[in-house]
Amino acid sequence: MLSGRRILLVVAGGIAAYKTLELIRRLRERGASVRALLTPAGAQFVTPLSLAALSGDKVYSELFDLNDEAEMGHIQLSRDADLVVVAPATADIMAKLATGRADDLASTALLATDKPVLMAPAMNVRMWEHPATRSNLETLKRRATRFVGPNQGDMACGEYGYGRMAEPAEILAAIEAQFHAAGRLTGRRALVTSGPTFEALDPVRFLGNRSSGRQGHAVAAALAAAGAETTLVTGPVALPDPPGVATLHVETAEEMLAACREALPVEIAVCAAAVADWRPVRTAEQKLKKGDGSQIPEIALQPNPDILASLSRSGPQRPRLVVGFAAETEKLVDHARAKLTAKGCDWILANDVSPASGTFGGDETTIHLVEAAGVEAWPRLRKQAVADRLVQRIAETLDASPTSKTLSEGVAE
Ligand code: CTP
Question: pTM to 2 decimals?
């Protein structure tokens, strides 16, 4: 429920604005109050009258409307909300906020607000994929703007790809997650591993993998957004450090383990890193030379430490809740159960990466949360939504379990 929550809804110009009407209806059904701010471009797609009728409130659109300013100044407008939602968020409004422009009421309100901002982008696929939009997106994410969507599909312009605004139900879920999570983990400490590890063969070559770190970084950001004091230990990735998270950069599995140990004690540990299972027995001090090509080096490998298993080992430093991920192509739950037992963690989030699942290379995934007590199947979700749901589940579990015990002790009793 969203009883008493005040939402400032910025409606920018896009055909998806018609879906925003449905969003307002659903928000109000759940007890939220909605104040709509309609940009001039937005008014080409939905009328102020529809917005006013559905929100039950006046609709704001002009920056220097003397009547509006007398009733409610434009700064006040953005401060009087608990959350600012931009739906649809156009490339233009993202660009304005990323660059700090304030030349109309919507951009001024966004710049002036001290409240969380959630954007639901909607635009042509080429605009979404343009480097300028990508860079604005990264900037905004770094400054803690949250995003829901866009989704992939057919577009009004006749093209296919990412750019469709998320459905009202998804935006609603993101809004609820935002309120649910806020402050629920305040006072708790969390540790997250993310990204790949690189194991050096010589000063220029390494063994590594293609992990992007997106899932782990999203989990760290969501934990921090829920108030947890969060440390992220990440291998080499092309992502910015998540806002509000103490981020430590490492290369190898051994460095990752050492950094994790330094971060203890924590109550929550989430291992999302794709740690290399092996490392070369020897790292050459100088670059290995190809010579005349007749000598092909044989690389002897040795096992790397298992960070998840190490953190799960019982002892005074064991976090209360240790969570691992598992990517499987077959027998998802069986393999996840085996990992749960072998590593001694509390939960495994098992991820179906079989070619049939369509997960590989995509942004959406289907998770099964496997724990000693059973298996929970989650719907198909984006990585950000997986992170939000995981954090919600963590908060509920820690609230419910006794403080002095680890979760597995609690389960075994
Ligand atoms: N993990 C870890 N340290 C390792 C290997 C894995 O912390 N050296 C963690 C991962 O972060 C993940 C979980 O263990 O949370 C499962 O990783 P995965 O690669 O799926 O499992 P493996 O143990 O490597 O088993 P396999 O490759 O045989 O599936």
Answer: 0.74
